[in-house]
Structures are given as C-alpha cells and as structure tokens.
Amino acid sequence: MAPIRRFRRLAVVVAVAALFAGLTGQPATAADTPTVTQLTLSGDQFKMTDTSYAAATNNLYTNYLTDHASLTDVITTNYTTNSSGATDSWLNLRSMRACSGNETEALPPVTTKVAWCWSSAHADDTTQHWYPQGLSTTGTADGGDGAIQGEHVAAVSWHYETLSGETSSGCKTDNLLKLTFIDRDTGKYRHVLLAEPTSTSSSASNFKFVTGHGGGIVWYANYIYVTDTAHGIRVFDINKLAKVDDYGSGVDTYGITGGRSSACGYPYVLPEVHYYQQSGTPTACDSDANAGTLDPDHLCYSWLSLDKTGGSPYKLVTGEWYGGVDGGRVVRYQLNPTSSSTYPGLLNMSGGKTVIQDAYAASRYRGLQGGMTWTDDQGVLNFAFHKGCGTQPGVYSHTWIGDTRAGTTCAAGGNWAAGPPQALSYWPKLDTTQVDELWGLTEGICWSPSDPRYDEHTPTSTLDACYGYNGSTTSSLRTVFAVGFTDPAVQDLH
C-alpha cells in the first residue's frame, strides 16, 4: 500500500453534529480520551505456536488429491453435470449481480467502484444457513499488479448455521467453513470447501472439513489466512487446490473413502498447511466477553487484514469483536515477505512463537467486525473500523493514534451500510492502474413475517433496513462493495 495521507475533518456542520456522539454511548467527557490506546505486552501474551500440516498436505496432494487445480480452473470451469454424469445446475458457476431494492441499503452511502449482490439462482443471497464473513483479494495478496496466477479475484469466507430444530452433523455442521472465489473481471464465482489433513504426518491419507466462524481472512501470495475465533489463525495454500472425485448437489460426504475423495458436494478442496494457535482459549468471545471483562491472556480472533505500510516487516492485523464491551484488542503480527529466507509468506517466528509487532486497545469502540491499519506519509498509524449495528445502518470509523474525537453511534443512525458491514481490505493496483480501493461486505438478511422463525428476528427500530418488510420470502442485505480509499467522503467519517 502506498503511503496515504491522514484525513482530518476540517469542519463539523451543526446540522450533523448529532451524528458525532460517542460511538459506544460514552459521556461527552470521553471525547477527551484517545480512541485507540497502545498496549504494553509481557512475556508470551497473545503469541501463537505453529502446527505445520505442510508435510501432510503435500502427501495428500501427491498421492490422493492428484487432480490438481489452478485458481483459473476454479473461477472459469463451468460444470453442468455431477461426477456421475447427471445434469446438476447446482454445480454451475454463479454470477454476482447488480443490487436492487432493499439491497441498496446494504451499500455504503458514498460513491462505489464495485457494488455486487450474490446470485439468486441457488439462494446465496438469501440463504438462512450460510453467512458471508471475511474478505480479502488478490489486490492485497500482490501489490504489484493485483493478480495471483494471472487472475483478479476476491475471496469470501462463509460459515454454516443450523436453524432452531435442526441437527448439526456432517456437511450441515454448525460453523462448517467454505471459501468463495469471485472473478473480478467477469463476476463469476465458485464455492470451495476448506479442509484439514486428519494428521500432521507426512504419510497422512485423509482430510476433514474445517469449522469456525471465519470472521476474517487475509490473502497474501499463495496463502489464505483464516481466523479461528477462540484458538488462532489457519493458513491454506492455493497452490494445493485440488478437484475431488465425487461432487454434486446430492453428495454429502467428505474426505477419502474407498479411494475416492469428496468435499460436501463441492468440486474443489483447499487444504490447510499451517495452524497458529494461542496457548489456551479466552474465557468468552461473546457480546459481553466475561461479564464485561476481557481475558488478559488470550485473544478472540474476530477479523483480519494486511498492512504493508510503515516499512518492514509486513503486519497481519487481527482484532476482537465484543458487541457490548469497549476496548477490544488489535494485535499486529509480523509477516515475512515471500522473499524471506525463513518462513516466506508466513508469520515470523522466534523461539517457536509468533512475533508481535505491536498491540492496541480500541478504547472507545465496541462491535468491531472488521478493521485495518496503515501508516501515513507523516508516520502516524491510522485505523479504520467497520462497526455492525445489526440490520440498521452500520458505522465506518477512521481514526489515528492521538485522535480524541467522539464517533458515530448506531442509535444516531450510523453512517455506513446496513447489513451489518464485515471485513475491510485494501486493493491498491489493477494491472498497471493505481485504483486505491477499500473493499468490504455485508452479511444480513431480512426474514419474512411468514417464516416460522420470524419472531427470532423481528426488527423493532424504524432505523432498521428490515423494518416494515412484509415479503413472503427472505430478502437480501448481502453485498460486496468497493469504495475509494482516498475519498474524503469515506475517510472523513468517524
């Protein structure tokens, strides 16, 4: 990322002053305290160890998952039949589409460079089971021309949710994870199952699906980092993409059985190569942490982003979501460039532990569902956050070290997309063109009053994008968008 100047609001119009009440509902005096506070860590606090699955994945890739695939294969091959030869439209490449109707409320109220909604063909836009979470792109992965393997692609993580009265099992297990690869140039996309070898052995002969919230992902070079909320961060290698033997809408198996591989119906599988884990698990990663107290020794890995500014090393940035507690931590781990002689493209290690660059408390924020950092041309560390407000308009906040401004609240109507907004990711260049784009997504749906589970999701505020919705089917608030990163209409928001 090229150094970006720090944007500051030059004037505040009285008519909109109400929008700049405290983001977390704190009293006016809180505006004298910093928005973000640097932390002093001790010992091995927040450090992780690495369990390597590289040898296991190499063996699977060499001897069992031998139909190797490229990123191009995944985003361009259109299957019309399943592995048995029967017509199966579920396997077709799907297409992002223009957003319409209520969906436009899930787009930022600024000029957008990309504004996509998911395909309706197989209900990716309205499914009650799958929820999009993290986002990263080849623009982040490769700042040279924004391409990996010659392709311009956005990746999105999804997790599966069982509904009340349903059983969590097999390919319908709670928090089952998949990744979607979207071809920026065509809008075509395909889902891929994330997989973990069943052992770390170099003779590993099977794999299983991966579970987690998938709240954050980062694409760097051939690696895709995925958060595992209470434990740490998983790493998957797109150079190990493989096509499985059995695929189609009727396939509900996974792994290798009788010499044949399957991946919950999906044609492709993306194997894990590293799993970074903290020493224990947090006392709680839910809305109020542990009765309002954050675990001092363990993190909740809720979101991820990549910071290439401020000189070497690169930083893998992770942060915490707590819906009802201020001060979620933001920790930046050192990430080695691909040219590094040790751990190329992976987290830097010392004494068997990951190396932390620095850490901060988002002192006056809560409900952060995405974030990123960058060092501007004045040497000041900047932060951007996505705050979710349910299906009400969310909040985009740009702040920096030393900032003491109060921020926008959900109660005041937010300043950003409804949905709620999730990840943040920077796309600097598209081929030789400097585009300076800020990417994000929203995850929500509006439930139909005719749905038997509507009472669990009834909107109560007139600010809610779903308020008054009375359609007979679920309505989408799921978007993928890009706005101008240097647009003052974006960066003047707080």
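the 2nd protein, sequnce then structure:
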Amino acid sequence: MPCFTEGRQSGDFHPIVPPGVDYAPTSLGATLLQTVQALVDWTESNQRAMAQARARYNNSMEDGGAHY
C-alpha cells in the first residue's frame, strides 16, 4: 500500500463488525493538497472541452478513424 509505506497516509483499524479504518493524511500527505486541488480545478474547468474532444474522437472512429 504505497500511501502507507511512503508516509502519505495513516490509518487506525477498529476491530468492529464490519471492520472500520479511519484514514487521514500525514503531514507529508497534506503537502499534496494544493497540487491535487489544482488538478481538480483544471478538470472542472475543462470538462466541456474534454467531452467535445472525446466526441470528436469517437465520431472519427465511427468514420474509420482517418479524420482525427
């Protein structure tokens, strides 16, 4: 589990039924917040353009793929 072994996340296991684990970022993991948030913001801002590109690609595949 890379998140644990690389120090980005911690987890506390609770021996209940069903089993439970509380996850939390470590101080190292918290340094990723701005980077991840920037990716989320970019994705939200560009959803329409990505959908249009996907539609153009799918349409080109229906036409034999030569137009993309």
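Residues 33-63 form one domain. Residues 61 and 68 are 8 Å apart (CA to CA).
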